[in-house]
Amino acid sequence: MKPCEQKHSSLHSHTAIRPTRYGPRPSLSSSIAHKRFVKAMSSNLKLFQPIQVGDMALSHRVVMCPLTRSRAHASHAHSDLAIEYYSQRASVPGTLLISEATFICAKAGGFRHVPGIWSTEQIAAWKRITDAVHIKGSFFFSSFGLWAVRLIQRPAPRPLTKSEIREYVEAFGTAASNAVHGAGFDGVEIHGANGYLVEQFLKDGVNTRTDEYGGSVENRCRFALEVVNSVVCAVGASKTAIRFSPWGDLYEERMKNPVPTFAHLTMKLKELYPDFAYIHVVEPAATGDRDRRVLQHESNNFIRDIWAPKALISAGGYTRKTALAVAERTGELIAFGRPFIGNPDLPLRLRYDIPLAASNRKTWYTHLSPKGYIDYPRADEDPRVVQSKL
Ligand SMILES: Cc1cc2nc3c(=O)[nH]c(=O)nc-3n(C[C@H](O)[C@H](O)[C@H](O)COP(=O)(O)O)c2cc1C
């Protein structure tokens, strides 16, 4: 693996509210809305206490999971609907949002109406969205998403050639640079979960290669580590993160024992990148967009043990009660997926124990439709909730 020649973290060191090349980020600290939210969120409960993650000063520990919603144009450039959608979910200042999985290059696609980040049009569309999130005082990581979807689709999956591996590793770096330096994201979360390309290398149920990218734990982790290095070289370690789902089995990518592989990867990341932004783990209770039955021995505690005391985001099947308990015990950030679809102001609802709205599954992936996307009310717009709580 070629180490980075440049130290990007110092080249692009930012404070939480920073000037971008498109102009200064608006100062929120003096706005009335900001002060109102900061006051409303303050609490003795750990879940609602501030935390520094990479370069970001988050005001609480509720995170929005990557959620594919299929609202981009056919060109894979996001529609303006996404400006409203993400801006609604950024409404509590200091929230970390993680974007839906995004294609890093045209070849890595496969699903219609999923956004990309390789063309000028796509980068400009994302910039309008990151601006809207930043105006709310929140933070935005881009999740990609090497979705090299075609490679997992039947009937004929095939291993990548060595030159394709090099091409994809490089494409990850280019996409990271597009995301941070072009589209204004605060960082990049590499999609190493849910059966997509990086995970296909990691899991021995899928990776049947006999070269240096297959077989041993070290070999199966090689591609992931090359991708991480490519992204770190492009944007710096403090703006780089990765998502894992060791127990996930959405595409039958099950491992008999994922512990040695994910333990090795976690150790390597800790050793190589002391400034790494965070690791995001999907708990055994979820796989892809659904619940999963947890077996007794399944737990991500081995990752926690290695990674501590660095920032860890845990996702998958959380309720208010379990999120409060885990955050209290570990200080971790808790990411919510499905609950964020129907509850644009989820952090505030959790803070005040306001009942959560269910989302309509049928509109999760409706192409380009505003329905079920930007029409879920905030609690203070909904007459059924107790206004006095706010
Ligand atoms: C509609 C929908 C789309 C999703 N899209 C993505 C995605 O793009 N990338 C990803 O890593 N996970 C994706 N997930 C999984 C979620 O990020 C999350 O791990 C999962 O929903 C479990 O969390 P929850 O129990 O809070 O919903 C998706 C889930 C749903 C429901």
UniProtKB/TrEMBL annotation:
Pfam families: Oxidored_FMN. Residues 1-28 are annotated as: Disordered. GO terms for molecular function: FMN binding; NADPH dehydrogenase activity. Residues 46-141, 157-355 form the NADH:flavin oxidoreductase/NADH oxidase N-terminal domain. InterPro entries: Aldolase_TIM, OxRdtase_FMN_N, Oye-like. It comes from the Eukaryota. PANTHER family: NADH OXIDOREDUCTASE-RELATED (PTHR22893), NADPH DEHYDROGENASE 2-RELATED (PTHR22893:SF91). This is Putative NADPH dehydrogenase C5H10.10.
